[in-house]
Amino acid sequence: MRLSVWIAAVMVVAFAASAAAQSAPERKGPPPGGHQPPPEAFTACTDKSEGDAVTMTMPDGKTMAATCAKASDGRLAARPDKMPDHKGPPPDRQ
Length: 94
Fold this sequence. Notes:
Layout: H1 2-22, H2 39-44, E1 53-57, E2 63-70, E3 76-80
């Protein structure tokens, strides 16, 4: 009797764990490995080499000096020479 209760309890726990794993929400947000650069950073380094100096133009028209470096996915992206002050939300991407 005790063995059958124990087996039933193990089966319930296994079923619950399986159901929870299958219903887990899809991950949203940045990919594993950290933040991805904005599209403008990749555009600025088109046809450039790692270490090249570039000027990156943001959607609001502001420009910033940057250097091409490998992003976490291996593509070249402009990395600002001086990180901008973040005052408020990021600019809209339209």
